[in-house]
Amino acid sequence: MATTQTDIKSQTLELSTEAFEAFCGDISGMFGIDMACRQEEIAQESIKSLKKRFKELNVVVGVKAKGALNGTFLLILDKEGLFTFGGMMVMLPENRILENRKQGKLKDAQDISDTLKEGCNLLVGSWDRVFRKEMAGHGHFLQGDTFIGNPWDEPEKKIGLAGDKEFVFIPYEMTIASYPAFKCGVLFPKTVFEPAAVSNTEKNTAPDKTAIKEDTKTAVESKPDADSKESSNSIPAEKPAVTVETKEIKEQPISETIQKMTQSPAVLPGEQPSLSSEIYAKDIMQKDVIWGSPDDSVQQTLAKMRPGEPAFVLIGQDNIPQGIVSKSDATGAISPYLRPVFAKWRRPQDDATLQIKVKWIMSKPVRTINTDASLETMMEKLCELGGGCLAVADQQGKVVGLVTQVEIFRALLKKQP
User: Fold this and answer.
1) Euclidean distance between CA atoms 230 and 84, whole angstroms
2) Pair 23, 186: CB distance under 8 Å
3) 397 — alpha (psi -120 to 50), left (phi > 0) or beta?
4) Can you give the pLDDT at residue 16?
5) Domains, the chain, ordered by start
6) Nearest Cα residue to 187 out of 51, 34, 3
7) 69 within 8 A of 190, measured Cβ to Cβ
8) pLDDT, tens digit (0-9, with 9 covering 90-100), for 305-325
9) Can you give the pTM of this predicted structure?
10) Residue 215 contacts by C-beta under 8 Å, 6 or more apart in sequence?
11) Residue 240: which pLDDT band, with cuts at 50, 70 and 90?
């Protein structure tokens, strides 16, 4: 039985709480603090009513959904949540966080905007993991624009919400450590629960069964009637030269030659073969894969990465991946005060972030392709799934190499005429 729009909406509302709880669990394990959330009553909201719930300073994260959900929905944290979460991520002192919750301005929020965006990336990752596991037909969630400021004066321009529309809003009360609770929630435009629209190209290429039926009916009705009177100028209808019998046609084995002909690309005289037909994952992949353990620290993982190129470390054992960590994942997990420019403000709390275990920041599941994947397939996968890396796996599911955007660029440049 097909999943209905009502089913998708109902399941989404249930999984939203599970996704927020998963995020709280991730942050709790990563930073060794208590973090929890409590769902409040679901409501139909408008921009006008949301302005009453949230003040002028907020962080709003656009989440691009593909699959069972289609479109963009929004995750929102209020001012207190912005400064509590962001301040905790950069290891600000407790008194500074409490002060910012009360008196923090847009400039103070912008000072920690990079860290807030990294934290919101973790939030979207938690949501994607839960929906990937629980919702049939889920494609992926990708972090879109992250807006910090007052979205309510120009909501359509700033966060993509028309002022006259209603939305499904699930509010939450969230707590971090001993700080007072703050407000957050998820905002679903009703269109995200609707099936993806079929493109004009698909409509034009798909066979129209109704049209076929009507054409057949017209052909039958237009056949000359042997008993009808003909005009004196009409030409007597000739009998068809060939009669097609409607007996069942028995399947015959297809020759190997024909099979090869149907599988080979068509290249006309004067044309060059497609690049994608000549380049395969096994030919361009990095064979020297770097591996790590889920219990490795961020510091250990960064030490394994090669300088000067996109770096990825696969997490797992026996060539079976459990997750993958990029250099941006690892650097985003540590305190910005570890950078040389901030060295004079470096504290023990900043050094402690180097010991965060990579199991809390790794991306999963790992996107894989087979060794015979074409260049076109690799490019489509990277565009569809995001990120800059694909793991190449053999028939047993063991990783034998990696393909990054760099390998693809090098292959294209090498094949230039």
Assistant:
1) 91
2) no
3) left
4) 96
5) 5-193 (3.40.1550.10), 277-414 (3.10.580.10)
6) 51
7) no
8) 876 565 899 999 899 999 999
9) 0.54
10) none
11) very low
- Tell me which amino acid residue 229 is: K
Cα–Cα distance, 358 to 332 (Å, whole number): 12
Alpha carbons 317 and 266: distance in angstroms, whole number: 43
